[in-house]
Amino acid sequence: MKKLLSLVLMINLFVVYHSQAQQKPIFPKGEKSPNVNHVGDVWLTELSHADSVFTYSTSVAVSDPGARLNWHIHPGGQILIVTEGTGYYQEKGKDKRIIKTGDVIKCLPGVEHWHGATPKTGVTYIATSPTEKGKTIWLHKVTDAEYFGTK
Ligand code: MN
After folding, report:
1. What pLDDT was estimated at residue 25?
2. How many whole angstroms separate alpha carbon 109 and alpha carbon 150?
3. 44 near 64, Cβ under 8 Å?
4. 48 C-alpha to center of ligand 1: Å?
5. What is the distance in A from the centroid of ligand 1 to the CA of 54?
6. Distance (Å, rounded) from C-alpha 70 to C-alpha 38?
């Protein structure tokens, strides 16, 4: 019986070890972004620059728990593809919503919004934005009431 228990324990350790080893991020974490348009720690890696053929930029953003971007607008819109973790997304006039691994969020051109991690969980997403209509317009910080509140 003891032998069986230790065998089961070893198998469990093996499974846990290997399932964790396979959870390596797909992309490098990138460079820590200076806290100009967000609070908390955010890392950014540009995966693809906009050019004359592909007129949109694509980046991966890693946000530590508590990190969130200021309110902002993408003149050409933005698609977010969540690859890891759980975070928040909110458009002006709407409730804040939870976003999680596998979610695809389409933010329409000109819509004021913010996105980031939750207070206790980090979030990673790929963000792609058309660049022809102009760069991101940064607005005010997300207030604590907005971030921690239910709305
Ligand atoms: Mn955005």
Report:
1. 82
2. 26
3. no
4. 17
5. 19
6. 5
